[in-house]
Hints:
Blueprint: E1 4-11, H1 15-33, E2 38-42, H2 47-53, H3 61-66, E3 70-75, H4 83-97, E4 102-108, E5 126-132, E6 136-145, E7 153-159, H5 162-177, E8 182-187, H6 195-208, E9 214-219, H7 220-229, E10 236-239, H8 241-255, E11 262-266, E12 274-278, H9 295-307, H10 311-327, H11 340-349, H12 354-359
Parallel strand pairs: 1-2, 1-3, 3-12, 5-10, 8-9, 8-10
Antiparallel strand pairs: 4-5, 4-11, 6-7, 11-12
The structure holds 1,4-dihydronicotinamide adenine dinucleotide and magnesium ion (MG).
Magnesium ion binds next to α8.
Amino acid sequence: xxxxxxxxxxxxxxxxxxxxxxxxxxxxxxxxxxxxxxxxxxxxxxxxxxxxxxxxxxxxxxxxxxxxxxxxxxxxxxxxxxxxxxxxxxxxxxxxxxxxxxxxxxxxxxxxxxxxxxxxxxxxxxxxxxxxxxxxxxxxxxxxxxxxxxxxxxxxxxxxxxxxxxxxxxxxxxxxxxxxxxxxxxxxxxxxxxxxxxxxxxxxxxxxxxxxxxxxxxxxxxxxxxxxxxxxxxxxxxxxxxxxxxxxxxxxxxxxxxxxxxxxxxxxxxxxxxxxxxxxxxxxxxxxxxxxxxxxxxxxxxxxxxxxxxxxxxxxxxxxxxxxxxxxxxxxxxxxxxxxxxxxxxxxxxxxxxxxxxxxxxxxxxxxx
Length: 369
Ligand code: NAI
Ligand code: MG
């Protein structure tokens, strides 16, 4: 039984506190289902490393990651390092080099967690965001001229390619087939007449190959309002890198805490390892206090196992997560008093027997392929 090779990058701050819990949940679930274990490579790539050695990862970092089946990532960021340096020094190169063009983010309220929405329950808030993850506004194309002078100008160009939009749209429609057969495509094509209009046209073309899926286009401002006023009308939501980045933080807020929001950065062709991470950052102001919510990372670990084909193990983790969300112990961000490790141990301890996995409704997992 060959072990799964997993690269583990805890990063900075609370990344180092929550990643061990995600890993423990994955290991326990695989043990229960009698699946191959994880063989992990722990990598200290981080802002801490940058401050010590001058780079977030070694020169051959991407090649080393490429030898793994998947990557479990915590968060990278430090008050002592500009955020654009840390983001462009590690996470963005990984997403671009490995062509992790799908960023998938389930936005679902768990029983027992209070959503700030008066009507926010598991029935009304259950969306699956599909964010384009390699181009758009985060392509890194642009420049600054006359830097520091009164004539300074900065340009940042969004790059939308037909191929890039088509593949993300196709992925969204495929996921929609496994859910409520609805896709919301989000742009701003009234004001942004080149890139956003190309997006709309390509999504409409792709929609024609999925006649069983209903497609609606929304402007991003209206989509943000709709997430609050009528979230139940949204199921799969597909949007560009920037828009979905912003909307999914709103989604995390609707879930009740950023400490619950998980994401998968996927290369569906599986040519390169995919990366799984909580949506939140390194949260320096609570780092080291043992109070970070580990649930987002546990959820990310469930997505990782699902991607590896370990659907039962993944379902067991989600079930344990739902159990602890409902009955506690919960961390402070979701109204409890538990520490990271108390909440984490409860989740790992709640990972049940193999038979329970099949009782978990498949529709509640995000990644079915
Ligand atoms: P953040 O996500 O670290 O924190 C935002 C707020 O949410 C803070 O009040 C924090 O205490 C709280 N929070 C986040 N995760 C939590 C958890 N698991 N449990 C309880 N509370 C939690 O975002 P912020 O403050 O904007 O960024 C901090 C650093 O993290 C920056 O350097 C930023 O660049 C980096 N960052 C890195 C990301 C990544 O590695 N993917 C993503 C977002 C930010
Ligand atoms: Mg974000």
